[in-house]
């Protein structure tokens, strides 16, 4: 008989959270801490969503999305998780650019960027300061019609080298392009420029283990291998239950951490929404997906410090479309040293490239395997210039593609960073359509990434709290 992953689960909870990405985990933890009964349902056998890892024989552990996030993560983890989690967040100081236009190392903060833009690219200090001040002042309620391209044209006309330095890392960080609203760039860029790039020492497995322990302390009922098939709503448009692994579990509120389009169009179904809202949902564009190559060196084999994050490109100028091409010319290398996981003797490299789902989805199995092999080979060829003799030091190599991300997280088209900007409004207005139904997860570019997802989980759990807590009677 198949194992019952819902054994002992109750028939009714205050809140059901669908999905254990960083937004879902954070919402579940906060709501349980507030005293609500919370059921967390995750279809995968592991918690974390895109914040995940996998193990391979020989003791190798690969992190998928632990490349860098802004300092804000430290504060959010301290406030909404634990001091211990916050204390493991440390700075990565070796950020590197290698491309036909320039080669430089930076600590990736405002001071160091300002220095490079003035000294290396010869831009007037007042212009650089005005740009940083303007980016810093941007917020969600600002003008949303100016594009990032227009923003750069205003401050650095014709300077594709400066644009490349300012934009390439953000395109990797959240998939945004020059045609997206400038605020999606300004907010994320300024978050990084505040203090630099940070990581979680100990690895994603260690982080998620601590998050799980904290949720258990707060009483979250955590269930893996539980795929929610349906969100049940009443005729007067209130959530009433989820249908999962053949059971109906009642609830007063639901936080869906699943992809926003799947939540609305598949889990609930379009008949339950205003037609105009369904139109808006269908019009939401997904963000791009990714390919990665995971490379482990033989135990004890290492390399000199080549930096932590390396933005490598062979492309003449900055070009977001070229960055998505299956004919890879741009890669971000994350170098993991033994200090990344204290106690380990492993050096690992993960190469990431942005990718289009369609370029990978329709290949035959044979073509797919051949393309993955070709990606591994070309990545090693490229890496050779930073880690000489990489092939003789190699213990394990494999690749993932948009198909892999779709399989494990159920994001439509394997979207790594949720949706384009218009997805945010659809996500935020979901409870206006169906009482008690909320979405927390990667949308709108600014709510994606580790920090964006955690913070969106916080915002949404506050809204659920207000919904479930009746206002005190006025006398
Ligand atoms: C290759 C790659 C590299 C990245 N690098 C970085 C980085 O360096 N820095 C950074 O800040 N961000 C990075 N990101 C992005 C970041 O990892 C994500 O934006 C963030 O983790 C998303 O969190 P989320 O809460 O939106 O949920 P997700 O991680 O998308 O998780 C959603 C969860 O819901 C579950 N689910 C979906 N449907 C159902 C269902 N019907 N029933 C049950 N469960 C369901 C899924 O299994 C999944 O666990 C990267 C992403 C990728 C793919």
TrEMBL record:
Domain Amine oxidase: from-to ranges: 22-397
PANTHER family the record matches: B-CAROTENE KETOLASE (PTHR43734:SF3), PHYTOENE DESATURASE (PTHR43734)
GO function terms (MF aspect): oxidoreductase activity
Family statement drawn from the similarity comment of this UniProt entry: Belongs to the carotenoid/retinoid oxidoreductase family.
Top-level lineage group: Bacteria
InterPro entries: Amino_oxidase (IPR002937), FAD/NAD-bd_sf (IPR036188)
Name under which the protein is recorded: Amine oxidase domain-containing protein
Gene3D superfamilies linked: FAD/NAD(P)-binding domain (3.50.50.60)
